Amino acid sequence: MRIILCGFGVVGQSFAKLLESRSEDLYARYGLKPRIVGVFDRNGSATDASGLDISRLIDAKKKYNSVKKYSETKNNASGIEMINDLEAEVLIETTQSNYKDAEPGMAHIINAMKQGMHVISVNKGPLALAFPSLMELADYNRVLFRFSGTVGGGTPILDFAKNSLRGERIVSFDGILNGTTNYILTNMADGMSFNNALSDAKQKGYVEADESLDLDGLDAAAKLVILANWIMGMKVTMPDIKRTGIRNIDSDDIKHATEKNCTVKLIASCNKELIVAPREIAADDPLCVSGTLNAISFTSEQSGTQTIIGRGAGGIETASSILRDLIDIRNESTKT
Ligand code: HSE
């Protein structure tokens, strides 16, 4: 299976290393022989139809902040040129999410689908802004589109709802889908001010480069769009979400919640309306997880409420979700 990797940041590099370290096991267990034939970042690209050497790629990235010096041959192909010219079966999109126009990820995904490639995206932007039309494009081009890392990182939230609960009718769900705000709110519940909790989260490297994505609930809203489409069969995009972030939460709100044995959490919910907003959650509710953890409770018609909890971010965790999608694509595409 030939792969083009868009973006070579923490997730892209973790995925490349994971493929290398698991190559024998992937072949033995799944008959999967993946090779990365092209990688590009914002400064350049590297290609080798017989498969790129992962350690050399990582060295080049470390030394020159780009994969472009992977080899002596000049490699100035843009991402779109690579997607249009290089033969591959799967495109993996790991560039940064943006919720203004979803570029450059949107163009990568659209071009790859038109070229007949299956697509795995951990970039939430294109899904948040155009989920219904991307699904149609994938169907039209008869390619598979997978994105399990966009919600819950390595925690298989989408798989759980889609596959483990198959046959069920999920009637509603509530989730903590943003680890950074959960970390900040957890620290505030322990007595820290909002500003100190934010600085601490920044110091630990949790906060997105554009802090608004976390603090104003955009990241959680994007994940809610993906869940609503994929799990609930809705056709919605970002503007359909009612969104309030955590900037206005102060120590009084935290105190009032504590008096009722509750904690303030940023909750993404689907129940008649799609809402991201801070809410008081009972301390003994399974949803009430602390630190950077994510949690989501699905309420189904027959089997009641079930909660899945796990780490919602991180390079290697998200890389594991890409591998999951790759195995799924391999299984689905070899079905006769
Ligand atoms: N900023 C996100 C979070 C990263 O804090 O959960 C994972 O999408």
From TrEMBL:
**Which residues of the sequence carry a binding annotation for NADP(+)?**
7-12
Task: Cite the binding residues for NADPH.
Answer: 124
Keywords, A to Z, come to: Amino-acid biosynthesis, Methionine biosynthesis, NADP, Oxidoreductase, Threonine biosynthesis
List, alphabetically, the PANTHER family matched. HOMOSERINE DEHYDROGENASE (PTHR43331:SF1)
Q: What is its EC number?
A: 1.1.1.3
Q: Does the keyword Oxidoreductase apply?
A: yes
State the family named in the UniProt similarity comment for this chain.
Answer: Belongs to the homoserine dehydrogenase family.
Pathway of action:
Amino-acid biosynthesis; L-methionine biosynthesis via de novo pathway; L-homoserine from L-aspartate: step 3/3; Amino-acid biosynthesis; L-threonine biosynthesis; L-threonine from L-aspartate: step 3/5
Q: Which GO molecular function annotation, any one, does this entry have?
A: NADP binding
Q: Which InterPro entries match?
A: Asp/hSer_DH_NAD-bd, HDH_cat, HDH_short, NAD(P)-bd_dom_sf
Q: Where is the signal peptide?
A: none
Q: Which domain of life is it from?
A: Archaea
Any idea which positions bind L-homoserine?
208
> What GO terms in the biological process aspect are recorded for it?
methionine biosynthetic process; threonine biosynthetic process
Residues folding into a coiled coil are: none
Q: Which organism is it from?
A: Marine Group I thaumarchaeote
Q: Where is the active site?
A: 223 (proton donor)
Question: Which residue ranges does the record assign to the Aspartate/homoserine dehydrogenase NAD-binding domain?
Answer: 7-143
Protein name in UniProt: Homoserine dehydrogenase
Query: Where would I find the Homoserine dehydrogenase catalytic domain in this sequence?
Result: 156-327
